[in-house]
Amino acid sequence: MRVKVLFFGSLRDAMGRAAETLTLPDQADLHQLLEVVSRDKPSISALIPSLALSVNEEYARRDTKLKDGDEVALLPPVSGGVDRPPFATEEKDGPLKNVLGRHSELVTTKINTAGIANSMKRGEDGAVVVFEGIVRNNTRGRRTLYLDYDAYPQMAVKQMDMLVDEAFAKYQIDQAWIVHRVGRMEISETSVLIVVTSAHRGAAFDACRFLIDTLKKTVPIWKKEFFEDGAVWADGEPFPEKLVN
User: Fold this and answer.
1) With 80 as the cut, is the pLDDT of residue 102 above it?
2) Computed over its alpha carbons, how large is the radius of gyration of the chain?
3) pTM (two decimals)
């Protein structure tokens, strides 16, 4: 059988390619796929234990059986579907509609924080909590020139949708939005925006913290930092154990 394998972030650089098609025995599992990949590229063996794997855009255990035509992604720890049309993310888009509920998306344009937050305000809510991740000008003493974010787009949006649904299940909130930008970002630009509304501030604060903390561990988005003296992929937080076994 033949399966398509995708590589992201630092793994893509190590492999020297973004994707390849492998021929595997029928009923092969992800363990066997990893053996083939590391045999062809021994230098990545040290990365294998830290990887999460997905099959057809869903996280998968390493004993998952594969079938012909599957799409497998090898996912290094994240730093943090098809692109949806951005919802008025640029200032030039003008006044925003008050769209209620839950929303997540990836965008390639500047994020209009004030416009999105204002569009979510309604009379029933006593709190709007806004979190912005901002590109800073240094990392561990090295001057940062700019950042470049990479993502597995379809899976990233699915995972963000699941996070928003989980936030609604955990907390008494009325609305929750996640907007993450990909591509090149300059110093002081917003890379990720989370906005939560609720009748009471406690639930809004708790849900917002849950969303950003979990996003940084589970959503397949990677950050490359460009310095005056070179560039590196940012060290990601380890995946939760259930995602790498």
Assistant:
1) yes
2) 19
3) 0.81
